[in-house]
Design a protein that fits this description.
46% strand; eight-stranded antiparallel beta sheet; two-stranded antiparallel ribbon; Jelly Rolls; 138 residues; mainly beta
C-alpha cells in the first residue's frame, strides 16, 4: 500500500483547454497498471479541446453542471453524481455550462506510451454555443 500525498493544483495548458481549467492529478499511468485519473475543474464556459482516447474515458461528475459532446452533435448535460463513458476513439469534448462550473474525475487507461489521449483542435465558440442550446432546449 502507498499513501500518495496531494499534488499542487495546476492550471490546465491553454493549448488543450479553453477558459480557466484546473487539474489535480490523482494517479498517472505506471506499469504494470495504466490508469490515469485527475480531478478537473472547469469554470463557466471553460472546456477541453476536441480529443479522443485509445482505450476510452470515464468521467464521474463530482460538482456542478456540465456538458459532454461528440463530433456527431450528441450532447449530454451532466450533473454531480452522474458518470459518462466515452468509447475508444470517439472524438469528444467536455466542460462547464455557460453559467455553471463543473468538476469531474477523468479516468483513462493508458496505451503503454502515456495516457492514450489524442488532442485535437479547440471547440469553437459557435460549436460550444450550439451544444449549450441543445442541452437546455434554448
Amino acid at each position: 500500500m502507498e499513501h500518495i500525498t496531494s499534488t499542487p493544483t495546476a492550471k490546465a495548458p491553454a493549448e488543450r483547454f479553453t477558459g480557466d481549467v484546473y487539474l489535480d492529478m490523482i494517479d498517472a499511468p505506471a506499469e504494470p497498471a495504466r490508469l490515469a485519473a485527475a480531478l478537473v475543474r472547469f469554470t463557466p464556459g471553460a472546456r477541453t479541446n476536441w480529443h479522443s482516447h485509445a482505450n476510452g474515458q470515464t468521467l464521474h461528475i463530482t460538482d456542478g453542471t456540465g456538458l459532454v459532446a461528440t463530433r456527431d452533435g450528441h450532447v449530454i448535460r451532466v450533473s454531480a453524481g452522474q458518470t459518462v463513458k466515452c468509447p475508444p476513439g470517439e472524438e469528444h469534448w467536455h466542460g462547464g455550462t455557460d453559467t455553471t462550473l463543473m468538476a469531474h474525475i477523468a479516468m483513462v487507461v493508458g496505451d503503454g506510451e502515456g495516457d492514450g489521449t489524442t488532442w485535437l483542435e479547440p471547440v469553437t465558440d459557435d460549436q460550444y454555443a450550439e451544444a449549450v442550446r441543445k442541452s437546455d432546449g434554448r
